[in-house]
TrEMBL record:
Name of the protein: No apical meristem-associated C-terminal domain-containing protein
Ranges of Polar residues composition bias in the record: 30-40, 192-202
Domain No apical meristem-associated C-terminal residue range list: 162-294
Region (Disordered): 17-51, 184-204
Amino acid sequence: MDSQDLTSMYFTNLLSQDPQIDPTYGGQSGSSPLTLHDSPTQPPNEPIGVRKSVRGANFTPEEDKLLVSAWLNCSLDAVQGTDQKHSQLWEKIFEYFQQFKETTTERTIKSLIHRWSVIQKATNKFCAKLAQVEGLNQSGMTDQDKFDKAKVMYQALEKCSFQFEHCWHLLKDQPKWIWRTTKEDPKRRKTMSPSPTPTRCSGATIDSAFDMEADEVMENEVIELDRPIGRKAEKGKRKAQSKQAEENFQLRKMKYTLLEESRAQEKEFYRMKAEKMEYDKEKEEKKLRLEDERLRLEAEKMVIEREKELAKIRHEDERLRLEAQKVELATKESDQRIMMMDVSGMPELQRLYFQQLQREIMARRSTSQD
């Protein structure tokens, strides 16, 4: 037991499970109806005036398993299981039974004690038969065969079939009901007595236990069970486990705190990164706006310069036109003056010159008119 976890000392998980007979063994399931009652029946005929005791409803397999679980939880506690009175023990078992029961049937402490004695006695006897079959060590027998043979031997002895397989399944691995004598079982020793000695399935507990049938074990063996953990050792073990649990809690708390700080830092990092991205975006947008404004001004400047250039060209064209008009006017006046000259009284050479000019003027005007 020293190597087991603290949770192995408690049996609350038995309520959430539906234990069946180990596949290694056979037999009926623990859900078969029972015929034993929690109180004996009264004779059919009683004198008038004598109060009849009311027999309670049969215990169901679920109630049997709950009772076994309550007994294991309350009696096998290394700290308090061996340091409480019989009445205190059964008050705790009754409270446990009332807390976890799923039926509306009311059970008293007396009925639970009676039912437990029936379960314990029947289970002890069945363990004795099973230990006897194991002691024979017959070759060729499987575990299934040994289990079936133990059931047959029990039925022959008790004149009824074994009806507490569902309870035996929960109790068989406890030191009080250990029956298997394999390599993994507790220590074994050969006795020096020449007479056969029975194999014990039960040990000392708080409430009285029923011994197995001593005259039915064939092998001269005694099983020495490992000594259960003491009260002081159990308290130390629980204290160490509580300290370890507290340290684990503090470590988890520290880990959670570090995780929260890491998340906060990561959140702050992403917030700053988002702010930087927003700032860079605004900066880029401002830069684009400035560039657009610069391009707009450049375009306006180019338009103004183009208009200036066009105005300058128009002015130059106007000036040239005026110059051309002026030249044309001067040419016309010159032509008119030459054409109006009287060349008859001029010397021959001068007369020929002006006549040539007059012909040229007439030829130019004829060309311009065409």
